[in-house]
Amino acid sequence: MQTRRTFLKTAGSLAAGTLLTPNLANAEKVNDVGIQLYTVRKEMLEDAAGTLKKLAQIGYRELESARSAKGNFYGLQPKEIKKIAHDLGMTVRSGHVHIDKDWERSIDMAAEAGQSYLVCSSLPSEGQTVSNYQRCADTFNKAAEACKKAKLVFGYHNHEYEFDKVNGKPLYDILLDRTDPNLVKMEMDLGWAILTGNDPLAYFKKYPGRFPLWHLKDMDKTKKESTEFGKGQINVKQMLQNMNKAGVKYFFVEQEEYPKTALESAKYDFDYLAKLTF
Q1: pTM confidence score
Q2: Radius of gyration of the chain (CA)
Q3: Which of 9, 90, 106, 277 could hold 85 in an S-S bridge, CB 3.0 to 4.6 Å?
């Protein structure tokens, strides 16, 4: 299992442009912020319901889960987390799992939780080779077919290693080129893409509509780890201004390292976004 390097609400099939709401000054502000629960993984394992309540109080509205030592939902059952989230004015939109022996069960659980997306969080087989990435792409096509039958959209979340190059071409591009664009979507981790010297905007232009999910994170270039918004090298505002080009439906704040506590950083990041205008 690879180490995980690892928000905006739409109503039904509304365009991604609705993720930004005009204000009286003709600027736009971010609405319905989402969070990847890996950000608060320790807190979720200790008290899942209580942590969700604290996130709701901060203002988060969209959730993406991540498989943990207590299962896909931190010890909660799919319908249980769905209800808790609903009662708090939140929605479980996506979840990180692996394509493994529990894959079919993960699909069923995601459907029970009311998710729209199911995301593979790391490559199903290891190897930084063209042949392995081709195999993984073929696996993604099959996995996406199974998700479609459950009315879920399949996605893959990148780290840094997918941008390794073979003969001058990023291995990540094989996943995009070899998979069915109508079935296999990408959740771009903007932090890792930029930290490795890649331009997300170039990918959005080359593969329009392939990136309905984002992990929005800032990165400390020196430490090569995540940091609070505005303290790293990522131009958060510029990324948000290009959501339409990417085809974004939801994006999730993710921070894996913190100066103090996960919840304090989650609040800092939320408040940072709330102040942004476009």
Answers
A1: 0.90
A2: 17
A3: 90
